[in-house]
């Protein structure tokens, strides 16, 4: 009620509020206010993952915002607002609302749901034999994986492109890290065993570009570049060229959407084109395709985002560009000593509970 966060807790962690404190608790109104951005493009329907992730990154990475309420919807208890970084208040042209309206985030296709028939209920335990056969010294499961991203429709020249990261065979287990989670229909995986190679690449890029002379760059959409974002250099593809000197880019190794100044973009040198792109666009197997509610999306993110998990691929939707490839996969949390949590089972159970509330 005070943070606006949906969380899953054990019953044993719940406590009743002592009667002597109830009056004081009731006297303080809930602090979380449900809001939506005002005056966005009409008929957007369900937001694209591009738009959702851009907004999340923009809001979460700024310690504070100024807000202008333009409308209150009493029936839904939602405030329609304009958001501003403190230095931009109250300039409407520099509001978060205007930036996201100008961004090239609404024109892409919505999630591509692949038709997969789950092979029965997959809530079986990942057997200890299978785990021990694939166990690494790090304590996780070994595997190799692939790269991918969002639906960037224009084909890109394969000259000086990194090789595609081979996907593991259907049904095999692999260790992954979930770098970004939007909802069960769209999240980003990275192959666990390649993370050290990615970290080494990032360090090399920092050393090179911190010493290299900055040069004017000819910017083209759907081309590869290096971009400086929060003191780190990333391999990116240009998704949109904005009118105010900013670019909309996609981080090919992390699956995040960012806005950067043209001045922060440099050519991607050949030496940094050898490691396959690490971001793998994925969809959760074992759940029915749908438009995901806020509650279901938040529960899913809390379960998987920024966590090492085990993946079991069910199918692959190939594409000309490696970052356009999308997989359907089961996810398993093996962090508990005695029980493996199959994420699709947990999500399905949550959907049942949410429907009861409705």
Characterise this structure.
The protein has 358 residues and is an alpha+beta fold. It folds into two domains: 33-102, no CATH class; 109-358, OB fold (Dihydrolipoamide Acetyltransferase, E2P) (Beta Barrel). Helices cover 22% and strands 25% of the residues. The chain has helices at 19-27, 49-60, 96-102, 128-134, 195-211, 294-304, 343-357; strands at residues 35-37, 66-73, 78-84, 173-183, 186-191, 224-229, 232-241, 246-251, 257-261, 265-267, 280-284, 308-317, 326-333, 341-342. The chain has a five-stranded mixed barrel with strand order 4-5-11-13-12. A five-stranded antiparallel β-sheet has the order 9-8-7-6-10. A hairpin with a 4-residue loop joins strand 7 and strand 8. The radius of gyration is 22 Å and the shape is globular. InterPro entries: SNase_OB-fold_sf, Tudor, Tudor_domain_containing. Pfam families: TUDOR. Residues 1-38, 170-286 form the Tudor domain.
Shape: globular
What are the secondary-structure elements, in order, as H or E? HEHEEHHEEHEEEEEEHEEEH
CATH architecture of the largest domain: Beta Barrel
User: Whole-Å distance between the termini?
Assistant: 18 Å
Number of helices: 7
Strand content: 25-35%
Number of strands: 14
Radius of gyration: 22 Å
Identify low-pLDDT runs.
108-155
Mean pLDDT, to the nearest integer, reads 79
